[in-house]
Amino acid sequence: MNKLITICFFLATLFTSAQSAKKISNENDLAFKGGEWLKYRMSYSNFLNAGYSTIDVKEIKKNGKPAFHINGKGKSTGLVSVFFKVKDNYQTFISKETLKPYRFIRKINEGGYTKDKEIFFDHQKKEATVKNHKHNTEKKYPISSNIQDILSSMYFLRNQDLTNLKVGQEIELKMFFDQEINNFKLQFIGKEVIKTKFGKVSTLKFKPLVQAGRVFKEKESVTVWISNDKNKVPLKIKASLAVGSLRADLDKFKGLAHPFNIIFDN
Length: 266
Description:
Blueprint: H1 6-12, E1 37-44, E2 48-62, E3 65-76, H2 78-83, E4 86-95, E5 101-110, E6 113-122, E7 127-132, E8 137-142, H3 152-157, E9 170-177, E10 180-196, E11 199-209, E12 222-227, E13 234-240, E14 245-254
Antiparallel strand pairs: 1-2, 1-14, 2-3, 3-4, 4-5, 5-6, 6-7, 7-8, 9-10, 10-11, 11-12, 12-13, 13-14
């Protein structure tokens, strides 16, 4: 249970496309905008309320150029919080033009296990500087081009064209996390209409290929659904764990850049 809140962010960013970063020619083409706010409810084994996470977007300036500050927070609630208190914060700062991250913050407290790290990305030098504020250390690491962090990747994906994906197609991702470049794969399963608290919604369904073992039940234990519209909002994440299952559902939202398409039954 010590990864209960963190896993929501982790799973939500696993299904990121590894396409080349692109410049946004028209601001209206973006799948998100400043003021967007998403709230997810997490449950364990479909009945135990485990916690909530929120992600919000603000427009800022970086060296006089437009950028985004994306702030993700997660915390345990209810019975889970009594036995194991979790409070996590992930932040990323990305260029509005390229959607590449230039700064990443990770502050977590999971039952007393803490991390306080800050990463600065230099894409020209292909170098990441990791500052560990807990241990007062600083170290540089080589990175590949178009690298993303665990939170920026979610917003990079939302601005890619997924219309030509074929069922069974696998996509690879390179993400800088925990001082190293991690390689992930995910598979496009197809389109599916799912029930949400807002109504029925058409979605794109993915299965990230995760490592089986102590946390996940098997290699293909995770399923992710994102809205099949211009927003490409993650709507539901479900994972079969070694013990029980974890589910995250979009609970509330505001400030979407485009209409949220809900299917009304006749």
